[in-house]
Design goal:
Blueprint (H helix, E strand, L loop, with lengths): L2 E5 L4 H12 L3 E6 L11 E5 L5 H7 L6 E4 L5 H6 L1 H22 L4 E7 L23 H19 L3 E7 L1 E3 L12 H10 L4 E3 L6 E6 H13 L10 E3 L3 E4 H12 L6 E3 L3 H7 L8 H5 L8 H14 L1
Parallel strand pairs: 1-2, 1-4, 2-3, 4-5, 5-6, 6-10, 7-9, 8-12
Antiparallel strand pairs: 9-11
Length: 312
């Protein structure tokens, strides 16, 4: 049995990940700023409070933590609206956590939830691969890129054994405000599952990169266990993802739910589509070699997402 600290454990990915870790026999220290409808179990210890607090971090680390999955974040749109809050959580709190872990001398595995936002926009029309430079244009992506560098530095210095996972769109987030401009991808699932009209803010031909929440959790669990010597020097990989058109996704969801996809109207917001609906072909050689995966095909992704929503 290992003890794994999960920050942001009460969030969308965090709850599913915490349950998966306990199912496989790990003890989980679940840290979140505010717990609602908390999951529970004999292998779980809740720590409630902000990651920015030294006292909260000390409480989370008052036992031997062998792995950390760092999910806590101020997300994209919210970070853009409040850069100071993004800096406090997305930069300062994470750096403080890395310093705290370095002081333990235990060199735990540290898995960081980064984002494809580090790549910036517009993305190269010819495609993205492991050589694509990081040119973030939004606060969220810039802060994520900074902390990828910080994690690589601390890994090379020997204080942690780190890996940054650049997440694509993860489907489907809860039907509630998330502060994420890409939330329309998840809203599409909720609307068609409920058989109600949906106005999609990008065109039918808009392209996205996506994984199901189940696939995302698979990749985080894998990141705790794989041999990091296979990583590139930056110790960061862009996760494999399915590239699809929004209209194609709507059609597959509609068939799976028995819902007419004509319920979806497409009213393109050109600026939003340029940032979140114009993803080119994606090649993820380093992640593939390290054993990370995508859902296989759109039908499999939709089936996994719908099963998750129906369990929730």
């Amino acid at each position: 049995m290992r003890t794994i600290l999960v920050t942001g454990a009460g969030g969308f990915v965090g709850r599913s990940l915490t349950e998966r870790l306990m199912d496989r026999g790990d003890r989980v220290v679940a840290l979140d700023a505010q717990w609602r409808n908390a999951i529970d179990g004999p292998l779980l210890r809740h720590v409630a409070g902000p990651l920015e607090s030294a006292t909260v971090r000390a409480t989370a680390l008052d036992e031997n933590v062998e792995g950390v999955i760092h999910l806590a974040t101020v997300p994209g749109g919210a970070a853009e609206q409040d850069p100071a809050a993004s800096r406090r959580v997305n930069i300062d709190a994470m750096y403080d956590l890395l310093d705290d872990l370095a002081a333990t001398g235990t060199r735990p595995r540290f898995v960081y939830a980064s984002s494809i936002a580090v790549l910036g926009d517009p993305l190269p029309a010819g495609g993205v691969d492991d050589a694509t430079p990081l040119v973030p244009r939004m606060v969220y992506g810039a802060h994520k890129a900074m902390m990828e560098i910080a994690l690589a530095l601390e890994s090379h210095r020997g204080s942690v054994d780190g890996v940054s996972l650049r997440l694509p769109g993860i489907l489907a987030r809860p039907a509630a405000p998330s502060g994420m401009k890409s939330a329309f991808m998840s809203d599409l699932f909720h609307a068609l599952l409920a058989k109600r009209h949906f106005v999609c803010p990008v065109s039918r031909d808009a392209t996205i990169w996506a994984q199901s929440i189940e696939c995302c959790v698979d990749n985080f669990v894998h990141a705790l266990d794989f041999d990091t010597s296979s990583l590139p020097p930056a110790r960061a990989v862009t996760l494999p993802a399915l590239r699809m058109q929004i209209g194609e996704l709507a059609d597959v969801i509609g068939r799976a739910c028995g819902t007419n996809p004509a319920l979806v109207d497409y009213e393109c917001d050109a600026a939003l589509e340029a940032t979140f609906g114009a993803y080119p072909p994606l090649t993820t050689g380093a992640a593939d070699a390290a054993g990370f995966v995508h859902d296989g095909d759109i039908a499999a992704l939709v089936a996994r997402v719908l099963a998750h929503l129906q369990r929730s």
